[in-house]
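Let's sit down with a protein and look at its sequence and fold side by side. Which protein we use is up to you, so please pick one and set it down. Label the sequence line and the structure token line clearly, so we can match residues to local backbone shapes. Go ahead whenever you are ready, and we will take it from there:

***
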Amino acid sequence: MLIEGFSQGFVATASLIAAMFFLRFWTRTRDFLFMAFAIAFAAEAVTRTITAVEGIPDTGYSWVYVERLCEYLFILFAILRKNRRPRRGGRRSNIAEDHETAVYSGARRR
């Protein structure tokens, strides 16, 4: 039980750190994909913290898997949204142009 709680805490901390990194990237670029990853990792951190504090085993409870499925579907939705085809007459975004715009528009801070 002690090792399981430690590992849950470790994964929760790592998920929270990943969420903070993706949130930082989102503040620089305002790209919805980064926000989706930040939300998914933050939700994972909350779930891991709840299971560690309450002493709930990680396996055997369907709500844990449903929550993870929702996270993955949210990320998949963000990926599909980013890669969708433009409407007729619209312009498809170029990753290199987006990065160049973000860097030269002053969005990149040091």
In short: The helical segments are 2-29, 32-54, 62-82, 95-104. The radius of gyration is 18 Å. The chain has one domain: 2-82.
